[in-house]
Amino acid sequence: MNKLFCGIDIGLNNFQFHAMDQDGNAIGKNKRYSNNIPGMNRLVDDLGDLMDKRDNPQLFIGMEATGLYWFLSLLRASGK
Asked: Residue ranges of the Transposase IS110-like N-terminal domain (predicted)?
């Protein structure tokens, strides 16, 4: 199965996002988002686009347990 691994590093004003395939190859460049609701929405949209381009792989997300960003897990679990 096609797998996508994503890491999110939360900062006070911004957060960093990095994606890799199952072989550890980087997918695109690291991205930076504002640490707010519009930034989170951009990440969700970009992640959806990335998954579409890779034939909807099995998704794994590693991130800090910080603030509202656990919302991403809820979105994925709900199928949105």
From this structure: 6-78
What is the C-alpha separation between 48 and 77, in angstroms, rounded? 14
pTM of the model: 0.72
Residue 60 vs residues 23, 29, 36, 55, 56: alpha-carbon distances, Å:
14, 18, 22, 15, 12
- Choices 3.90.550.10, 3.40.50.2000, 3.30.300.130, 3.30.420.40: CATH for 3-65: 3.30.420.40
| d(C-alpha 75, C-alpha 80), whole Å | 5
Higher pLDDT, 16 or 69: 16
